[in-house]
Amino acid sequence: MTRDDLPRRWSDEPERAPLESGADSGQLTHSGEPEESSPPAALVAEALKHILESEHFHASTRGKQFLRFVVQYRLEHHPEPLKERMIGAALFNRPLDYATGDDSVVRAQAREVRRRLEKYYAAPAHQGPLRIELPVGSYTPEFKLEGQKSEENPALAHPPDQPGAAPTPAEATRWRSLARKSRYRWLGGGLLAALTCLAGLWIIAYRSPAKLPNSSIAQFWAPALASSKPLLICLPKPVFYRPSPERYKRSAKTPGEFDREVYRMNHPPHLLPEDKLTWGEMVEYPEYGVGKGDVLAAVLFSNFLGHQGKDSEVRIGDGYSYEDLRNSPAVVIGAFSNPWTMEMTSGLHFSFVDDEKGLRIQEQGPPGRSWLTTHAPPYVDFGLVTRLLDSNTGQFVILVAGNDASGSDAAADLIVNPDSLERALRDAPRDWPQKNVQIVVSTAVKDAAAGPAKVIAVYVW
Predict the structure, then answer these.
(1) Do 135 and 259 belong to one domain?
(2) 271 with 300, same domain?
(3) Are 228 and 346 found together in one domain?
(4) Enclosing H/E stretch for 112
(5) Distance CA 305, CA 299 (A)
(6) Distances from the Cα of 35 to the Cαs of 30, 32, 43, in angstroms?
(7) For 92, which DSSP code?
């Protein structure tokens, strides 16, 4: 297969139902044969249009591209099954022979699309006569009629004889009946959804501290919460190496001790300080390597944004690019493991420095303070929050990082805690919400857990 053999990319197409070929009303499988219990393509097109225009997908460019592509592929009845590598090449500009095990962009996007579809169909107003689902473990969508339990659907007992043929009069009558019944359900569901929304708005307006008028936390996050696009939560994934399975097995003290991956993952090999390892005995594991402090920070942000009703997307390692940061507001986590943070804070009043003096947060200009983590009791770590209204990506960005994991955790906790952030910005200029802000924090670490964040420096410009 060459790139020319791939289906036409839909990333650059206008927002429309991709069903203008000869399969506009047929009932087809990806192999081109009639499929029993498969609805007409015109009904699929209508369902897809409503999904892509919904609040769950309208701000997700990649999500729309992905769903539109896999639906189109099935309806165009290609003989070759839809595979991960094919999607990566067609939608994400990956080489045709790229290593899918090392690049999870397609799998991550499929998970995101499934999550958005679940949210879409969770709303009663979106319960129509047909559902589009993306089964776990597959990239081929399924089209299910309301109440359909299996591939055999009595409403479609007589599929057309030829691909592309119009439904029979009896089938058309059944489709109209299904659609008519669904309209009544939509009316009731719409009323319930409206009441639910009103209740949710009341709770947000009167119960959520982050929504109180003029609160520091509301003003701090306002540019991200006001955006129609989801907030990206971006974590780094450093290179991660482990001894090879063979080296584990050679170190075993009992036969078969390290034959299973679960034991290798949870126990170190039996190696003495004087034992030697060759580079060939070390193996890179692309799926591992996310830092504990970064994960804790991401969980804090995800929970906070969920309470504000703000949609977010977690991206890890190479799961996000400069183009992604240009298209959406973002929280970027990590410093010395994340080149984006190092680049964006370089030259700012407070920045991260890595030189012969050690890894630290450094103040530029007088008084030129610096903060290095102490690795002997009492263990104290430092973190830095940087809020950029207009970063070099052109989007609102919050950078959260520490010298170590505990510093990241403490910095993240500060900006999702209304009382702590109120105290931190109490002496800041009145117009700080319209400016960039940096906050340096310290935290006492005990038993590998960060304590409360203590603000030690604030800079506004």
Answers:
(1) no
(2) no
(3) yes
(4) helix 105-122
(5) 10
(6) 9, 9, 15
(7) S
The per-residue pLDDT for 348 is 94
Same domain, 143 and 265: no
Contact 347, 353 (CB under 8 A): no
φ/ψ of residue 235, rounded to 5: -110, 145
Chain centroid to CA 122: 19
Q: β-strands 312-316, 231-235: how paired?
A: parallel
- Give pLDDT tens digits for 413-452: 999 999 999 999 999 999 999 999 999 999 998 877 888 9
pTM of full prediction above 0.70: no
Q: In whole angstroms, give the CA distance from residue 344 to residue 431.
A: 23
Beta-bridge partner residues of 312: 231
* Residues 310, 394 within the same domain: yes
Task: Give me the amino acid identity at 120.
Answer: Y
Secondary structure of the chain: what % helix, strand, coil (to 5)? 40, 15, 45
Q: Return the ∠ at Cα 427 (arms to 422 and 429), rounded to 5°.
A: 105
Q: Roughly how many angstroms between the first and final C-alpha of the chain, as a whole number?
A: 54
Q: Tell me: do 29 and 95 sit in the same domain.
A: yes
Range of the domain at 382: 224-237+290-460
Q: How far apart are CA 440 and CA 415, in angstroms?
A: 12
Nearest partner of 344 among 393, 295, 389, judged by Cα: 393
Residue 49: which of 83, 18, 72 has the closest Cα?
18
Give dist(CA 383, CA 96) in Å, integer: 42
Is residue 330 within 8 Å of residue 313, measured between CB atoms? no
Max CA distance (Å), the chain: 84
Q: What is the DSSP string of 53-80?
A: TSTTTTT-HHHHHHHHHHHHHHHTT-SS
Task: Determine the Cα–Cα distance for residues 103 and 318; give it in Å rounded to an integer.
Answer: 8
354-406 pLDDT, tens digit each: 998 889 999 998 889 999 987 778 899 999 999 999 788 889 999 999 999 88
Query: For tokens 């209304």, what's the residue?
Result: 418
Cβ atoms of residues 352 and 342 within 8 Å: yes
What 3-state class would DSSP assign to 400?
strand
445: helix, coil or strand? Answer: strand
- Residue 116 shares a structural domain with residue 255: no
Residue 56 lies in a domain: yes
Q: Is residue 46 part of a domain?
A: yes
The structural domain count of the chain equals: 3
**Interstrand relation of 231-235 and 330-333 (parallel, antiparallel or unpaired):** parallel
What are the φ/ψ torsions at residue 135 (nearest 5 degrees)? -60, 145
